[in-house]
Amino acid sequence: MTNKQERLQKVIAQSGVTSRRKAEKLIEEGKVKVNGKVVNQLGTKVIPDDKIEVNNIPLEKEKRVYYMLYKPRGVISSVKDEKGRKVVLDLLPNIDQRVYPIGRLDYDTSGIILLTNDGEFAQLLMHPSYEIDKVYVAKVKGIPTNDALKQLKKGVQADGERLKAVHAQLLSTDRTKNTAIIELTLHQGKNRQVRRMFEKIDFPVMKLKRERYSFLTLQGLQPGEFRELTPYEIKQLRHVATKGK
Q1: d(CA 174, CA 220)
Q2: Which CATH class is domain 133-213?
Q3: CA dist list (Å): 139 to 83, 105, 203
Q4: What SS3 class is residue 48?
């Protein structure tokens, strides 16, 4: 239906300009126009034919796209880098839309990262209350005891933040090299969280990879490769993020 009405902040978020929360702030600050008139009421609804401007820039209605990338180590999870280092967008050179990563993976961490131009979708997956499983496999120096792994699930205090794992499991050990492979499941998405947690219990991370994001895995992808998410996968991610809410 061409006259379907949607909330203004949702339309702005879906365009990829910003998240819905930031779109709401822009509306309240009088920085959004609809058909040439400033709109500052959050309840405002618009139709597809309405002309929307954000900070006097016309809103471009891009096709919404969703990608999964196998990020290699040594790549920044950003759209650009002041130091000129390689960023995730460099690995998606032929994408017409202005996509950006959902969350981040550290420079030295490899694995799954999602990219989109759908601000609402990105905000949904990043919201701390929606408890998306993010599964990491870490190679650590030393061999943690069961009590040490229980401490990760109980939570550790680091730099004023409570960092907590949902699940922690010892996968294998190498007693000759004094190393261990640990699987860790998080719902939080704090900066360098896995590394900070292991540092707190004195088992520094030597290598780290995010192997699963909700039900998505790296199957079929090599480092640096990406693919589009299927409509079913997009629907399922929305469902997983909002279940019980």
Answers
A1: 28
A2: alpha beta
A3: 28, 16, 9
A4: coil
- Other CB atoms closer than 10 Å to residue 240's CB: what's the count? 16
Q: What residues are annotated to the active site? A: 106
In the CATH scheme, what is the code of domain 66-129+216-242?
A: 3.30.70.580
Among the four given CATH numbers 3.40.50.300, 3.40.50.2300, 3.30.70.20, 3.10.290.10, the one describing domain 6-58: 3.10.290.10
Residue-level pLDDT, tens digit, the chain, 245 residues: 346 788 898 888 877 778 788 899 999 999 999 999 999 888 899 988 888 999 998 887 778 899 999 999 999 998 888 888 999 999 998 888 889 999 889 999 999 999 998 888 888 898 767 778 999 999 999 999 999 999 999 999 988 899 999 999 999 999 999 999 999 999 988 889 999 999 999 999 999 999 999 999 999 999 999 999 999 999 999 998 887 44
